[in-house]
């Protein structure tokens, strides 16, 4: 039994199931209805077959053994005329050579079979012929038919037997007075015809019922699951929204449905969840706006005092009177830190403006010239590094803000110079992909895909340094992300503000592009993709 259950499970696991709940419910309904129809049809066929077989047994008992008994002793025929001619089947009626038939066919239905067995061997076998002036026709039985007749119990009960020359018969065997066995049979053709007719009618009717039930069930299930379909559609629209940042407008709520049903409760719970999510997103957006406003206001307000501190420090250094060395050193540090603080303030102000969505200058920019200028500046700042260029023969042009794009190049090159040891090779490549390109799966970055109808400009800065640490690789473009300070200082670079790469990502995204990073020990590549354009 367990093996049967396991086999059924394996078979069901291989059966392809519909994907949608609506299709599964409809298929389940049709399958259950088909099983019910099959059970009703089988029960009706079995009951009809049993009823008609019982009626046939009653006819057998009413006919008795008069006909098979007359095969041995002879009996009157329905007419006084000798019947020596052959019937329509070509078989000669049972009788003497002068044409007299010996079977008693009175009160016997056409097709009635009679046989007499002595010692298990068939001595006489005939069947009542049909038509006007019916008589008896001898039957030639095969050895298998004879064995089937000999095997019949002599209890007077009807049993179905298949005769090779006559077909299906309902047989009844009764012991005779002379130690013989008398067998009477009636054909089961009428029973089989009625049963087959019922099977055909049931198949047609049940098939039509299943077809109608399938269509009606599909419509009913679809109507019943409309609230769930609306929930799924709303959830799909929510999943397509960019929820990571900015103001988010959630789609309308799911229309109210019957709260007493399971689908109605799901819809109500989903609407409540959307309300909570919308409140959380609204509060987050308000917090982001306050933070941006604070950063912009603070940066703007700090620019003047920082510039004033730096100016006073420079003015003190220009004083002609002698200054003690310690005071001189303090003034120099004040000036340097004020300059560094000014850079941080400028970077924060730039990021705040980019976050606020302020438009950048949109003009054709010769990116090839910007790359040449930026690499020349990097060579002057880092003469101990080996700098290389890989440029296309034709100038590469984009539409954007030249000053901000130059800042992107300067930040990438400064990052490569600061985080690689002296003697490292830094390669800057610039090319245009005519068909457009998207970030590879290995690139960690952010921003848009950076492709357009005019193709994509790909800027890469590659170095053979130690690579970016794995623990900061995923957030390298976030603000105030710094590499290990000791490791950076050992390589001769500054500590940095942690805003350079975040500015790169923000400027690239503001131009409709993206940034990415692929890093491993001995190979690090920063990739910037921008829409090609401009003349």
Describe this structure in words.
Helix 8 (325-355) runs parallel beside helix 12 (500-510). The protein is 48% helix and 17% strand. It contains 12 helices and 14 strands. The strands form 3 sheets. It has a 6-stranded antiparallel β-sheet with strand order 3-2-1-6-5-4, sandwiched between helices. The protein has a 6-stranded mixed β-sheet with strand order 8-10-12-14-13-11, with helices on one face. The protein has a two-stranded antiparallel sheet with strand order 7-9. It has 535 residues and is an alpha+beta fold. The radius of gyration is 51 Å and the shape is rod-shaped.
Give a short synopsis of this structure:
By secondary structure, the protein is α+β, with helices and mostly antiparallel strands. The protein has helices spanning 2-14, 21-63, 66-73, 143-150, 189-224, 226-239, 262-317, 325-355, 367-381, 402-418, 485-490, 500-510, and strands at residues 113-118, 121-128, 136-138, 159-163, 167-175, 181-187, 363-366, 386-391, 397-400, 425-433, 444-447, 456-463, 514-520, 523-531.
